Amino acid sequence: MMSIEVLRLLAIVCIAVFHAFLQQYVQAIWMGPHHPVSVAEPVSALASSRGAMWIVAMIMYCGAWGNHIFFMISGFFLIPRMCGAAGSSGYWNTQLRATGRRIAMILATVAFYLLLVLVAGHWAPSVSNDTQSASLVYELEFVWLYLAFVALAPAIAWVLNRLGACRSAVVAGAVLIAVYALNAYVACTWQAQYGQRTLLDWRKQMSAVSYALSFGLAGLLGWAVQHNSERRTEDKRHGVRHADRRPLWTIRGFWLCGVLVLLAVASVLTAVMVMRSSYVALYALSFKSTSLISFALAVCALMAAACPPLHARVHAARRAEAVVAALASGILGFYVVQTLASFLWKAVNARFLDPLLVRASSLQSGPAIFGELAAWIAVGAMLSLAYVVAVCLFDRCVRRPLLRMVHLSK
């Protein structure tokens, strides 16, 4: 059965798989389907295979989806607790202390892995290239965004509490429409110039706005789920008739159906775009953080995980989820490692994946190329999974105990 921790771990895996194929996918997009296949340009094999492009294009939804899930899960749990206390005396003092502790944990995580990479740089000079200041500021943007959202969470909760659930929902809906209208514009007009992006470009800042919306909207959804649960408990206590009935939006199956429908829509849209004479429109479907499909999938997946099942889980399932929870706690560490220690994946890619792509580009027939590319995708996905497990186990066994020693982790 699905749970929040399973979803958290799935998000890490999806982000890792997404990054395994991102560079090759972008290159194939600009080559187009009619680019001649050449060993000198191994990515041309991917560009020439519409079937393989469809598979990789579907994987591309995973990147933004995983990022949305990361921010949504944090907002879903942080904000509702704060909303409940927003009207009490001493709210700001209490939240400032708790928020300061969370920020210290994030900074300590970055410092820990940065120190490890710097130490590794003494033995491998090429490693130090990944720890430049530009990398710390720009490539760690998701970690800094997470820090900013955590810092702003008490203020977001206070505003939601002042507005009330209904008015907050109206405001969130209006902001959602505006943000994704702008995102659609960015996806359709900014692709060719994306390599020249800067942090001060408003189109680049739409990523931060999109993820901030996910963080706040998830908090609002969590608040609604909490309020519904409290109301049902109160109704049962007073013997209200049909108190056990659950609204449609709190039933897991409803959201799982939403996930399936969205996946079907994404599959069809992607197939249509793959068959066009140019891949530019295909790229727009999953362009960075602008993908409405990725966002909608994240909302449905979050609610499916958060809504309790109709039947209790068996003991074996609970034990399995305990194992998953141990790995899923490494999501923040994985974000940092993926950036600061990117040389690890580059070495894996050069050793195992690049030769498969070169071999595919040396073939002549379409089916043979597709078969080799399918192997390339499968191996990349399995290596990504192994990479996630290795990093999360290290994070669980090393970083978290160290932070626990200084009272920054439970």
TrEMBL record:
Transmembrane annotation, as ranges: 52-79, 103-123, 143-161, 168-186, 206-226, 247-272, 322-345, 373-394
Entry keyword set: Membrane, Transmembrane, Transmembrane helix
Keyword Lyase: no
InterPro entries assigned to the protein according to its UniProt record, in alphabetical order: Acyl_transf_3_dom (IPR002656)
Molecular function terms, GO-annotated: acyltransferase activity, transferring groups other than amino-acyl groups
Span of domain Acyltransferase: 3-392
Protein name per its UniProtKB record: Acyltransferase 3 domain-containing protein
Organism per entry: Bifidobacterium angulatum DSM 20098 = JCM 7096
Lineage: Bacteria, Bacillati, Actinomycetota, Actinomycetes, Bifidobacteriales
